[in-house]
Structures are given as C-alpha cells and as structure tokens.
C-alpha cells in the first residue's frame, strides 16, 4: 500500500520560554537607580539653566541688548536668518513718497527746503496712518533698490553669513557636513570666489577625494570663469576640465 504524503506540512509551533519574573527587590532597586539618575539630570539642567540665564543677562549689559536676544541667538542659531527682513524707516518712506507726489505735480522739490515741513506732517499722522504709509511703501516699486557694485558685494556677504550660520546650526541640530562656493556670473563688479567648509578637515580630505592637490583658489577661479561664460562649456576658450 502506497501512502501519498502532501508536500505541505503543518508548521510546528515552538513554544518560547517566558522570561523569568524579575524579583521585587531588583525592580525596586532599578526604580531607585532611575530616580537617582533623573534627579542628577534635573540638578544638572537647573544649574545649566541658571548659568545660561545669568550669562545672557551679563551679555545684555555688555552689548545693550535684551537677554532674550542672546538666548534666541544661542538656542535657535541661524533658523530665523532665512526669513530676515530689513525694517523700513517710516519717516524716510513717507518722505520719499511725498517728494515723489510733489514732483509728479510738477513741483521742483529740494530736500532741504521741505525736510522740516514733511517732518511736521509725519508727526501729525496717527499710528494707523503711519503703518499704512510703511505698508504702502513696502508694496510699491520704490522698495526695489538699484544694485551697485558695493551693494552687491554687501548683499553676497550678508547672505554668505546667513548660509554659514544655517549650515553650522544644522550641523549641531542634525549632524551634517558640507561646503559651498560662491562665484560671480558677470563682470559688473569684482568679488573673489568665496568658500565655506563646515569643518577644516573636509577641505583637507578633498585632496584624497579628487586624487590630486585641491586648491580652492584655482578651482574657484575656474568656476568663476565658467559662470561668467554663461555656464556654457562650448563658449569657453580654454579647457575647464579639472583633471
């Protein structure tokens, strides 16, 4: 007699042994150690908080700033820099708009002649009217500044500081490393290529990464030439390949 055995066999159940119960004395000792460690952490945090608040108060007296300014700067680092907005001077905005109106009416306006008169008009406005003037000035085309060589370099320097602060803050909060290079793409102003590395060791490692000497000045110059050429390899008059 032949018995046919199916290829599908029921899976055996393996009874896993339950861990032995922890003795009550051991659990109590563990709770006691955890409470003791938490108490030590709380004490350390309290000491840190006390020192930090005292230091912020000390810095506020040194630099004539509120303590909150230094606390935000320390704990939030560059997180607010991305949304930085330059505050508009209300009187300057009002003066600019009023002079523009006078000139549109055909009047010949000299700033020294109308300065005192406009100051009196500005003082007579209510806070709501002053706020409306500022908002109107910000939304008008007069807010667009005409770039100059100096203002462009200052703008780049300001943005670079923000980028450095943002990357440094991200390095502390998340754990990253990186670098960037900023070059101009036109000849309307002079600015040397600008580099930033989150750690000096990263720049040193680039010699190994590219398997030859890494020269930021040379590479930055090549990147600048490439950018000025419109980032078009075909328009370059010399070899841009970094071998």
From TrEMBL:
Residues 1-36 are annotated as: Disordered. InterPro entries: HMG_box_dom (IPR009071), HMG_box_dom_sf (IPR036910). Pfam families: HMG_box_2. Residues 87-132 form the HMG box domain. This is HMG box domain-containing protein. It comes from Amanita muscaria (strain Koide BX008). The lineage of its organism: Eukaryota, Fungi, Dikarya, Basidiomycota, Agaricomycotina.
């Amino acid at each position: 007699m032949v018995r046919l055995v199916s290829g599908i066999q029921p899976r055996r159940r393996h009874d896993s042994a339950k861990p032995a119960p922890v003795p009550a004395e051991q659990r109590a000792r563990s709770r006691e150690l955890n409470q003791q460690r938490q108490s030590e952490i709380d004490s350390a945090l309290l000491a840190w908080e006390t020192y930090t608040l005292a230091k912020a108060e000390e810095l506020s007296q040194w630099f004539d700033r509120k303590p909150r300014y230094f606390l935000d700067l320390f704990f939030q680092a560059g997180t607010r820099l991305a949304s930085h907005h330059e505050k508009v001077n209300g009187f300057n905005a009002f003066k600019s708009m009023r002079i523009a109106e006078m000139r549109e009416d055909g009047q010949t306006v000299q700033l020294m002649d109308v300065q005192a008169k406009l100051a009196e008009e500005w003082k007579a406005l209510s806070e709501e009217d002053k706020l409306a003037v500022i908002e109107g000035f910000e939304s008008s085309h007069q807010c667009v500044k005409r770039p100059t060589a100096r203002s462009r370099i200052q703008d780049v320097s300001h943005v670079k500081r923000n980028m450095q602060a943002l990357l440094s803050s991200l390095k502390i909060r998340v754990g990253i490393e990186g670098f960037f290079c900023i070059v101009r793409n036109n000849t309307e102003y002079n600015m040397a290529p600008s580099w930033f590395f989150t750690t000096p060791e990263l720049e040193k490692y680039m010699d190994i990464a590219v398997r030859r000497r890494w020269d930021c000045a040379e590479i930055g110059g090549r990147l600048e030439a490439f950018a000025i050429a419109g980032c078009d390899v075909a328009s370059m008059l010399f070899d841009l390949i970094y071998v």
